[in-house]
Here is the input.
Amino acid sequence: MRKEYTSIIKRWETRISFIKKTSLTLSENQMLGLIGEIFFFFFLMINEYGVKDAIESYIGTDLAHKDFKAKNIWYEIKSIHHGVRSVKISSLEQLESEANGRLVIITFDQGTPTSTESITLNGIISELKAVLDLKWQLKLNEKMRKIGYIEDERYDEYNYRFIKLNLYNVSGEFPRLLKNSLPNGISKVSYEIDITSIERFEVDD
Here is the structure.
């Protein structure tokens, strides 16, 4: 009997060791990006559009070019560390559209596990689920699985503190690359926008 228990314990120790050596599905940059999207979803989209429309507008998890599209407006969310002065636009399509949209820049600083202001990926997703009915929890779970998020206690090692949220109107003269302005032969681009250059496009809502 003792040998049987020893064998079981060894198998579990081997499994735990394997899990610890396995890399997390999301990188730290992806983690921070997802925290920003969930933060925006939780504190702005639900208040503005209600749970149903907020869930359905969250199209970034379906590999769409924009993160959210609700009614006649779209939102592209960018999470940055405090002190960073530019945001990366990973494709032409992120900021190109016939409809007006918003670039949302959310700034975070490093947090500490003991601070009540600290935000973790697991924590903010759990808080969001707590205000959703089961139907919408399942919808959210499905969206999280699509982008590779599975709850893992190791995500709790990454703590952030919310600093500020800025919204910018993307239309007209907003600095961005557009397909019709590119030389022939160029099909894919990524670029960075200096945040100080878009201050005049900032909006309050």
Observations:
- The two ends are 67 Å apart (CA to CA).
- The first helix runs from residue 2 to 21.
- The CA atoms of residues 77 and 104 lie 5 Å apart.
